[in-house]
């Protein structure tokens, strides 16, 4: 499950041009999150600025973030959740070793 929050927006001439977002992915046992800025490719005023909702902005980002039929933000978070399942948990005093995963 993905939970999106818009933490700030930038606007120019009444058009939302950028939004800062936070997304939490939770599979019921583990969770990962990310935040970032989204710059809208072609800002168009479809709704009066004062009537824009957080859900609308999330929807706009989700629509623009589709590549190869998938939302790139959500698919990366899903990949991180899968990687957590495969990761061996070591005590904090054991040296951590970084290895490249299989692709």
Protein topology:
Blueprint: E1 2-12, E2 15-26, E3 31-39, H1 54-64, E4 66-67, E5 70-71, H2 72-86
Antiparallel strand pairs: 1-2, 2-3, 4-5
Account of the protein in words:
This protein has helices at 54-64, 72-86; strands spanning 2-12, 15-26, 31-39, 66-67, 70-71. It has 103 residues and is an alpha+beta fold. The radius of gyration is 17 Å and the shape is elongated. The chain has a 3-stranded antiparallel sheet. The chain is built from 2 helices and 5 strands; from the N terminus they run βββαββα. The model has no long low-confidence stretch (mean pLDDT 86). The relative contact order is 0.18. The chain has one domain (2-86).
Notable traits:
103 residues, alpha+beta, 3-stranded antiparallel beta sheet, two-stranded antiparallel sheet, 2 helices
Summarize this structure briefly:
With 103 residues, the protein is of the alpha+beta class. It is 25% helix and 35% strand. It is built from two helices and five strands; from the N terminus they run βββαββα.
